[in-house]
Design a protein that fits this description.
Elements lengths: L15 E5 L4 H15 L4 E7 L9 H15 L3 E7 L8 H14 L3 E5 L6 H17 L15 E5 L12 E4 L4 H9 L2 H4 L10 H15 L5 E5 L14
Parallel strand pairs: 1-2, 1-4, 2-3, 4-5
Antiparallel strand pairs: 5-7, 6-7
Helix pairs in contact: 1-5, 2-5, 3-4, 5-7
The chain binds zinc ion (ZN).
The site of zinc ion (ZN) has 5 residues, from loops.
């Protein structure tokens, strides 16, 4: 069966779709921004490409439960898992088509993808797959499900496994959403808490420091950085902080 047949159709086209190689990447990279945009009335979706298993302390059941808790913490109404294979993610033509079909069905105005430079092969493959699927999504005269559609913007969130210092295109103020972000990440106990009790500072403490670092860069308490390959056009200046 074509996986797209199972894809839930949102009640209205998505304002933005966040694509994550694994459940927890969207929360780590931009959980605060997701919660913020939802609070402002945006219709946001998260698409996980794989189930993220196996991991040392996880099982399929545990990961599904953790994902449900995180989804609730962020207030997400649309989330789906495309069922690709964890650790073996590749930007194949077949995977490109599956993802392009999700875009044609959910019709997100904007896309958020993992940052293009990473140590994790799944993340690099995901970014390449998202960019090529974005292009394929607009094609006519194909056998793909849905009508041609082109997401107008693509931004990149940082959930990277390299010790590099991002040079973001913009930073979102997530001060009021920090608690929701922390709750969404802490939901993945099997990934960030279990078996890591003796590590100091803890993963969640480091996440907070990172969030405060980006907040300090724009004069607020908490922030999340984003990259863009293309210049960002502005029509007004008065919302910049
Ligand atoms: Zn990941």
């Amino acid at each position: 069966m074509n996986p797209i047949d199972q894809c839930p159709v949102p009640h209205s086209p998505l304002d933005a779709l966040v694509i994550a190689p694994h459940p927890d990447d969207a929360e780590l990279g931009m959980g605060g921004t997701i919660a913020k945009l939802i609070s402002q009335g945006w219709n946001i979706g998260v698409l996980d490409l794989t189930n993220g298993e196996p991991t040392p302390h996880g099982t399929l059941e545990i990961r599904e439960r953790e994902t449900r808790i995180a989804t609730t913490a962020l207030g997400l109404k649309w989330r789906w898992n495309l069922g690709m294979r964890n650790r073996y993610l590749e930007a194949t033509l077949e995977n490109r088509q599956s993802l392009a079909e999700v875009f044609r069905v959910t019709r997100p105005r904007w896309l958020f993808a993992p940052y293009w430079e990473d140590a994790h092969p799944d993340h690099i493959a995901a970014t390449a797959m998202i960019e090529s699927a974005r292009f394929w999504s607009k094609l006519s005269k194909t056998e793909m499900t849905g009508q041609p559609f082109h997401p107008t913007r693509i931004f990149y969130y940082y959930c990277i496994h390299l010790k590099l210092v991002p040079q973001p295109a913009f930073i979102m103020d997530i001060t009021d959403q920090w608690d929701a972000k922390l709750a969404s990440v802490a939901a993945y106990e099997s990934q960030f808490v279990t078996g890591k009790d003796s590590i100091s500072p803890s993963f969640l403490e480091r996440l907070k420091s990172e969030s405060e670092f980006w907040g300090k860069a724009i004069g607020v308490r908490h922030g999340e950085p984003f990259a863009s390959r293309e210049p960002i056009g502005l029509s007004v200046m008065n919302n910049l902080i």
